[in-house]
């Protein structure tokens, strides 16, 4: 083979190799561009769906508030679990789903009422201790909770104040005021995750005010804690007689003795504070908006709102 032929073949081989490299590079660029476009398209779709889900959730809040307003306009004077606001609802709108649930806070034990005007509330303290015992929790925890929400730094026998909390590996101070949210209970001495999970379904951190427990909506655990004489039979009788439309019916249910009067002193048949949770779902993307409102007259005063981050 002549030298010239060898050079020509070598050049052809180099050119072919160069072409293959260019094709491979172009394929890589095309595939990367395709992946980038797909990711951007998916991100845009997720943003669209997330936005739509958020506005569906906001619409759910409006629906919840309208249900409460309709209930106010009925002037019934009591609130129970068979009313429209208390029944969870789901509505399909376009390509999404809107879910709404409304919960009255008076169905729970108002933990902030343990201290009223910076003075221990003996009735509520006794009820809270009964509630703790029924959940198999040491009732000494009540001391720690009261120390957390009272305004002073005096330590109760089973309690704790800022001196204790400041000595922890991650130090903080006692609130020395009403809890802003129930999750704050996790910071109280003696409240483990297990204890919190047992307590939380029965408590509310609604701010002090008209904190009467609603006999029409409270669960059996809360009802049983109302008084030492609240036997399981009496609790079941209360639940069976629901809805109770006025407190005058209480003596008929519990008898006309002292028990009825004691229970009546810290309970009612209507609710004033409600938490509305609204969820919007579009293509498996969920957004939840939560609002707590206080009813008064025909007004609904928002107390707080939580929106998706």
Give a written overview of the molecule.
There is one protein chain. The longest helix has 71 residues, at 3-73. This protein has a five-stranded antiparallel beta sheet with strand order 1-2-9-10-11. The protein has a two-stranded parallel sheet with strand order 3-6. It is an alpha+beta fold and 309 residues long. The mean pLDDT is 90. The chain has nine helices and eleven strands.
Keywords:
single chain, 309 residues, alpha+beta, 5-stranded antiparallel sheet, two-stranded parallel sheet, 9 helices, 42% helix, elongated
What average pLDDT do the residues reach? Answer: 90
Given helix and strand content, the structural type is: alpha+beta
Strand order of the largest sheet: 1-2-9-10-11
| Shape, principal axes of CA atoms | elongated
User: How helical, in percent, are the residues?
Assistant: 40-55%
Task: Classify the beta-strand content into a percent band.
Answer: 15-25%
Taking the alpha carbons of the first and last residues, their distance comes to 75 Å
Number of helices: 9
Uncertain segments of ≥5 residues (pLDDT<50)? none
Radius of gyration: 31 Å
Fold topology:
Blueprint: H1 3-73, E1 89-93, E2 96-104, E3 109-110, E4 115-116, E5 119-120, H2 122-134, H3 141-149, H4 162-166, H5 193-199, E6 203-204, E7 213-214, H6 220-224, H7 232-240, H8 250-254, H9 258-264, E8 267-268, E9 273-282, E10 285-296, E11 299-306
Parallel strand pairs: 3-6, 7-8
Antiparallel strand pairs: 1-2, 2-9, 4-5, 9-10, 10-11
Offer a quick outline of the entry.
The chain has helices at residues 3-73, 122-134, 141-149, 162-166, 193-199, 220-224, 232-240, 250-254, 258-264; strands at residues 89-93, 96-104, 109-110, 115-116, 119-120, 203-204, 213-214, 267-268, 273-282, 285-296, 299-306.
């Amino acid at each position: 083979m002549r030298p010239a032929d060898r050079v020509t073949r070598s050049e052809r081989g180099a050119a072919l190799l160069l072409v293959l490299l260019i094709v491979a590079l172009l394929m890589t660029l095309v595939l990367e561009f395709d992946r980038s476009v797909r990711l951007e398209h998916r991100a845009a779709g997720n943003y669209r769906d997330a936005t739509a889900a958020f506005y569906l959730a906001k619409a759910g809040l409006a629906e919840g508030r309208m249900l409460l307003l309709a209930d106010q306009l009925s002037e019934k004077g009591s609130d129970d679990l068979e009313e429209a606001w208390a029944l969870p609802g789901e509505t399909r709108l376009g390509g999404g789903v809107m879910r709404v649930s409304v919960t009255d806070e008076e169905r729970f034990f108002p933990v902030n009422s343990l201290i009223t005007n910076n003075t221990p509330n003996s009735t509520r303290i006794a009820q809270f201790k009964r509630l703790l015992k029924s959940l198999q929790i040491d009732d000494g925890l009540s001391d720690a909770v009261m120390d957390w929400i009272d305004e002073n730094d005096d330590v109760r026998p089973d309690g704790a104040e800022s001196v204790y909390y400041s000595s922890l590996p991650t130090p903080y101070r006692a609130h020395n005021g009403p809890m802003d949210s129930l999750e704050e209970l996790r910071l109280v001495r003696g409240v483990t995750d297990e204890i919190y999970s047992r307590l939380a379904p029965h408590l509310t951190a609604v701010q002090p005010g008209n904190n009467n427990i609603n006999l029409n909506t409270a669960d059996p655990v809360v009802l049983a804690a109302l008084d030492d004489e609240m036997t399981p039979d009496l609790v079941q009788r209360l639940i069976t007689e629901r809805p109770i439309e006025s407190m005058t019916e209480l003596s008929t249910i519990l008898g006309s003795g002292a028990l009825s009067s004691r229970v009546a002193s810290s309970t009612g048949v209507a609710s004033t504070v409600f938490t509305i949770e609204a969820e919007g779902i579009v293509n498996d993307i969920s957004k939840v908006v939560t609002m707590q409102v206080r009813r008064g007259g025909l007004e609904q005063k928002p107390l707080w709102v939580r929106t998706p981050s």
